[in-house]
Hints:
Elements: H1 2-11, E1 16-18, H2 21-30, E2 39-41, H3 55-65, E3 72-78, H4 87-99, E4 104-110, H5 116-125, E5 130-132, E6 142-146, H6 151-157, E7 160-163, H7 172-179, E8 184-187, H8 192-195, E9 202-205, H9 210-222, H10 224-231, H11 234-241, H12 244-261
Parallel strand pairs: 1-2, 3-4, 3-7, 4-6, 5-6, 7-8, 8-9
Helix pairs in contact: 3-6, 4-9, 7-11
Amino acid sequence: MFLEIERYLAARSTRIIAISERQKSELGLIYEVAPMEKIEVIPLGFNLEPFLENQEEKRKKFRQEYMVDDDEVVISIIGRIVPVKNHKLFLNALKILLENTNKKVRAFIVGDGEDRQLIEGYASSLGIDFVSFVNEKRKAKLTFTSWKKDIDVVNAGSDIIALCSFNEGTPVSLIEAQAANRPIVTTRVGGITDVVIPEKTALISSKMSVNNFARNLLMLVEDEERRLEMGNRGHDFVGTKFSYKRLIDDTAQLYRRLVASS
């Protein structure tokens, strides 16, 4: 029913805007919503400057709030706690990481959702010490923060940003992570490769491979120089590709072109 509605509206539209080449292919070739020549790609755009502003101050704020020492490496996964986000893979990889490093590691699950209790129970079954920080203020290997609006502060306080979803469109958390110059460990799904530079700003593994995901986490935890090197490439990359100014310019150019040709 929804496909028919989309096709009906597409037939009466001058252009369809897709946010990535992958989405354009899905709309045009897979779901046949509209002919490919009718679909224009305009990537998302954001105000990314806050993610690089006052980073030292924001890092200090996050680490003081959650009692993180200067020599502790923080890995954060940001998003809803729902099945598609595949938090179990993150916990399985975290357990492997903790068993194979001498570095001090703290992990943070930032967000909330329907699977919260399930994921807490799974962490308990793996023997990972965790805390729900809203209810209990203490240090733990794994901290559930619940919802946080100041994601720029979370990124500043973190050393590595993780994502292990079964599927993603355009993962905003990874764009924001790169805007904050943070390296990424992620699964290879959906539009991930459209928003990161593999091996340059992100280490990528299969959504089914816990060992590879854990190995990538371990690699960045153990190698501070590589963490910094990968992180420092992020802001320039997303600052150009996903800037809100670029979004405005692209949209304005499309309208001008259509008006001129009408």
